[in-house]
């Protein structure tokens, strides 16, 4: 379990299923994904998320607001399942229910996830990616100190050619960047 000032990133519980499904069915939340998810698709996603956690010991953790116990979304680290010029790698990612946007929660939780990745997992680099239009998510990446090189932009191999969500921007952060100059 990871703890920040306002959040707990913890294990999944059965009671997360309902607010998770509600979040995945919200068109505002899924604006930059191919489609909203049905309850059955959320169940299938939960199985994949749990399998990733079991396999790697890290993954998309549910984020709970400490003050109220509310499920606010997920934040965490994951191994992308597709091949691209920057894989294999570990990504940091987030998806929050719209009621909880704009209070710095994604950035706060992601900062703890990055620290875990660098300090506990010993990763050298962590990436993040999204479509160019997802300015909220890109802003989180920038606030985390991640940087984008336009030469890293890529076409997501799981999204069909010609689809408006195919092009992606990639952000990276390296631990102890100062070491590179030693
Ligand atoms: C992306 C997401 C997690 C951000 O969560 P959040 O808790 O609101 O993020 P934060 O509050 O930490 O930061 C959001 C930043 O975006 C900025 N922002 C919000 N709307 C914006 C807009 N329309 N244009 C530019 N910046 C915007 C905010 O001002 C804030 O930056 P600031 O702190 O410098 O003011 C949330 O919007 C979300 O879940 N979106 C849907 C799912 C998704 O797209 N996930 C990412 C897939 S890669």
Regions with pLDDT < 50 over 5+ consecutive residues? Answer: none
Number of helices: 4
What about the largest sheet? 5 strands, antiparallel
Q: What ligands can be seen in this structure?
A: coenzyme A
Q: β content, as a range?
A: 15-25%
- Order of helical and strand elements: EEHHEEEHEHEEE
How far do the termini sit from each other? 35 Å
Kindly name the structural category: alpha+beta
The helix fraction, in percent, is 25-40%
Q: Mean of the pLDDT scores?
A: 96
Tally of extended strands? 9
Strand line-up in the sheet with most strands: 1-2-3-4-5
Topology readout:
Layout: E1 2-3, E2 7-9, H1 17-24, H2 39-56, E3 60-65, E4 71-78, E5 91-96, H3 105-120, E6 125-130, H4 135-143, E7 147-148, E8 154-155, E9 167-174
Antiparallel strand pairs: 1-2, 2-3, 3-4, 4-5, 6-9, 7-9, 8-9
Helix pairs in contact: 1-2
The protein binds coenzyme A.
Describe this structure in words.
There is one protein chain. α1 crosses α2 (39-56). The relative contact order is 0.15. The strands form two sheets. Strands 1-2-3-4-5 form a five-stranded antiparallel beta sheet, with helices on both faces. The protein has four helices and nine strands; from the N terminus they run ββααβββαβαβββ. The chain has helices at 17-24, 39-56, 105-120, 135-143, and strands at 2-3, 7-9, 60-65, 71-78, 91-96, 125-130, 147-148, 154-155, 167-174. The model has no long low-confidence stretch (mean pLDDT 96). By secondary structure, it is α+β, with helices and mostly antiparallel strands. Residues 29, 32, 73, 93-96, 101-107, 130, 134-137, 139-140, 143 line the site of coenzyme A.
């Amino acid at each position: 379990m990871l703890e920040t000032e306002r959040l707990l990133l913890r294990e999944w519980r059965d009671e997360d299923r309902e607010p998770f499904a509600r979040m995945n069915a919200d068109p505002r939340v899924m604006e930059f994904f191919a489609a909203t998810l049905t309850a059955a698709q959320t169940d299938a996603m939960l199985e994949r998320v749990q399998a990733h956690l079991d396999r790697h010991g890290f993954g998309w953790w549910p984020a709970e607001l400490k003050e109220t116990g509310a499920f606010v979304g997920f934040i965490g680290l994951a191994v992308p399942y597709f091949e691209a010029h920057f894989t294999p790698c570990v990504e940091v990612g987030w998806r929050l229910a719209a009621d909880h946007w704009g209070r710095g929660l994604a950035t706060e939780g992601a900062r703890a996830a990055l620290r875990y990745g660098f300090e506990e997992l010993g990763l050298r680099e962590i990436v993040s990616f999204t479509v160019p239009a997802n300015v909220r998510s890109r802003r989180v990446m920038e606030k985390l100190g991640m940087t984008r090189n336009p030469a890293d932009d890529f076409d997501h191999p799981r999204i069909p050619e010609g689809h408006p969500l195919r092009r992606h921007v990639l952000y990276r952060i390296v631990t102890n960047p100062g070491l590179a100059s030693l």
